[in-house]
Amino acid sequence: MEISSKENTHFFSNNTILPMDRSSFKSESSASKEKQSCCGGIKIFLGALSFVYFAKALSGSYLKSTITQIERRFDIPSSLVGVIDGSFEIGNLLIIILVSYFGAKLHRPRIIGAGCLIMSAGTFLIAMPQFFMGRYRYEKFPSTINSTVSISPCLQDKNQTPLSALEKSHTKINAGCEKEAGSSMWIYVLLGNLLRGIGETPIQPLGITYIDDYAIEDNAALYIGCIQTVAIIGPIFGFLLGSLCAKLYVDIGFVDLDSITITHKDAQWVGAWWLGYLIAGAISILAGIPFWFLPKHLPKPESRKDSSTSSEQSKFITEDNKEQHKSYQQVKIAEMAKDFLPSLKNLFGNPVYILYLCASIIQFNSLIGMVTYKPKYIEQQYGQSSSKSNFVIGLINIPAVAFGIFSGGLIMKKFRINVLGAAKLSLGSSFFGYLLLLSLFAMGCKNSEVAGLTVSYHGTKQTTDYEQALFSECNSGCLCSKNDWDPICGENGVTYISACLAGCQASNGSGKNTVFFNCSCVGTVESPSRSSSAVVGPCQKGNECPKMFLYFLVVSVITSYTLSVGGTPGYILLLRCIKPHLKSFALGIYTLAIRVLAGIPAPVYFGVAIDTTCLKWGSKRCGGRGACRLYDSSALRYVYLGLTLVLGTVSVFFSVAVLWVLRKRSSPQEETLSANGERGTCGTKSRKDNFVNSDHLIQTTYWPEKETRL
Fold first, then answer.
1. I need a labelling partner for 374 at 20 to 30 A (CA). Which of 16, 123, 701, 707 fits?
2. Distance from C-alpha of 193 to C-alpha of 85, rounded to nearest angstrom
3. What is the pLDDT of residue 335?
4. What contacts 178, CB < 8 A, 6 or more positions away?
């Protein structure tokens, strides 16, 4: 009887459980299908957004790589180039608030697609001046032109020069003055970069929040980390493209390259800067196509349907009554505008957000200024060509940044670091990164020996006024201009501004193979009175410079890696310390502040500071100061690195303040939980809140490793 009763009980239990199992199976099956649909949609968006990040990063980094090319092509100073570079941020400034606030409630994918089209139009506009300006003309002595007429560089007697040659020279100058208006076409470059900034505006605030809204909570940071990692690949290709184009002559396809008398190592060389913009514009068009076919909304994952907040956000965002999201389809523009000022007040009432924003603004001032003029610094400090400078940055520095971002996320995953720990990691990376930057002060090269600028004609260090020192007894009988820049290298290892100022009496050959003889100022140490020869082009830097350049590369890579380790932790700190319905708005304000207070002014005042170290300015054909031809290496090093280091140090102090506020707002109990591998808090106020949210503390035990996985 006992056995039969047990069997009956077992039988009935099976009968009652079976229907439940079937319904459970059905619900699991539907949930699985919904999950696959959701994941499929979000992964397509992820791939498209990654390609857009690649496209915008490529065009942005390519602009950085062409800074010196644009400066020489349009004959403008570094400060004006800084204004051109900052115009991108001005474009962001014009519409960033509107896009980030209103765009979040409209069709986000299509807004991103429209932005890509605008971005490509701006990129094409940057390249347009090349097709409307005249051919690039650099300063050169007539004897270096392919000609059978032998002209003395030192024009002691004007009768030495054939009348036809003089007339031809004057005709060229007059023609240059008539076309001098072409030099103002840098305005089109500025407008194109402005338009490019407008098009790029919706990509970050709308793209990141779209992923954070519809991705599975555990995978949100993984997707964001993937996008940031892919975005780093863009600058690699951008700088490599800049390196390739810098080797090609600016008027390639329009002039006979055999007639060019300068090489890509010359200070007057201008590469085919416009070619890369055509390529970048085409890539931007392709990147925007998929967004026109993506839906306005994706189905939310099953785990996020019951709550409008993430498990961690619901823990530290203390709000008596959590605001519910309105339907995006029914909301009106007037209703959205009414909530604008309260949302802004709510956002700026968050001390963590404000302090982190200040730290980011100052740090980005240092980083943007450093990156913008890094190719110029390498060229002038270590005597490298524009092509090699861009190649080194693209192939060595940028991968170090990518690896640093990846490592930052990996460290957070491995050690299950909470929000408080993310702030510590961000602070530590900044502190040690700028500490390493100090060592670069000792890794510089001495000034190139240029007669009349850095050394006297007798070989001693120059101390008198540069303008007056260009003339000496050895060239007193020559009719020379102090404004010329057509450097030659004497056999004594000293560079002379021109063959005339070197006192050269004769020349042989043509083009790049021209050799000057009987140069009265080119004396050797053993026999300073003996006239010597010289060749076209400046002399190379000292023998110790290649070694210093190698040391610079090693320290620069380590510094780039160290600074970028704090990138992902800082980004997670920003996202998790704001209310969920303000994420898009907060990112928009953050981006706006970085653009306005760092992206716009940093290239300008860095350029102004760098201009103060110029020793020799070029001159325009019709008068006026052109681009700088030679910088004081020591002064450039102290200005460039010193300004970067001072700004970085100030940002570290603000990062310390962020950490202090987080510690103050975290209770001892939460710090204990945090030490045991659970998530710390960012904004709890009382034990009551901790008790109410205790279930979230339990649920998010394994959140850190999934949140920060890259």
1. 123
2. 7
3. 65
4. none
For residue 441, the Cα-to-chain-centroid distance in whole angstroms is 22
Contact (CB, 8 A) for 70 and 84: yes
Cα 259 to chain centroid, rounded: 36
H or E stretch covering 668: helix 668-675
Considering only residues 364 and 203, tell me which one the structure prediction assigns the higher pLDDT. 364
All structural domains of the chain = 39-145+184-300 (1.20.1250.20), 344-434+544-661 (1.20.1250.20), 449-540 (no CATH)
Contact yes or no for 607/78 (Cβ under 8 A): yes
- H or E stretch covering 486: none
Asked if residues 582 and 209 have their Cβ atoms less than 8 Å apart, the reply is: no
Q: Distance between terminal CA atoms of the chain?
A: 62
Query: By C-alpha distance, which of 225, 285, 293 is closest to 41?
Result: 293
Tell me the pTM: 0.76
Q: What share of the chain is helix, strand, coil (3-state, %, to 5)?
A: 65, 5, 30
CA distance 291 to 284: 12
Closest CA to 194 of 86, 341, 352: 86
Nearest Cα residue to 314 out of 702, 699, 710, 707: 699
Nearest C-alpha neighbor of 412 from the set 707, 209, 658: 707
Q: What is the pLDDT of residue 554?
A: 95
What the block records as the tokens of 175 is 């023609």
- Write out the H or E segment, with its range, that includes residue 667: none
Query: Rounded distance, CA 218 to CA 414, Å?
Result: 15
For residue 519, the cross-strand partners are 504, 532
Summarised one tens digit per residue, pLDDT across range 62-107 is 999 999 899 888 888 899 999 999 898 888 788 877 886 777 677 8
Greater confidence (565 vs 532) lies with 565
CA distance 115 to 341: 26
SS3 at position 323: coil
Within the chain, how many helices (H) and strands (E) appear? 28, 7
Residues in the chain: 710
Phi-psi category of residue 152: left, alpha or beta, with phi > 0 → left and psi -120 to 50 → alpha: beta
The DSSP symbol for 166 reads H
- Name the token pair of 210: 């779209």
**Contacts made by residues 411-414, CB under 8 angstroms, sequence distance 24+:** 411/565, 412/568, 412/569, 412/572, 412/704, 412/707, 412/708, 413/704, 413/705, 413/706, 413/708, 413/709, 413/710, 414/705
H-state helical runs in 143-298: 163-178, 186-200, 203-214, 220-247, 273-288
Give the C-alpha separation, 431 to 453, whole Å.
Answer: 39
Q: Using one digit for the tens of pLDDT, what is the confidence trace for 23-46?
A: 444 444 444 444 444 456 778 888
One-letter amino acid for residue 161 of the chain: T
Amino acid identity, position 143: S
pLDDT at 529: 53
CA atoms within 13 A on the CB side of 321: 2
Half-sphere exposure of 544 (CA within 13 A, CB side): 7
Indicate the DSSP class of residue 202.
T
pLDDT per residue over 265-300, tens digit each? 777 889 999 999 999 999 999 999 988 888 877 777
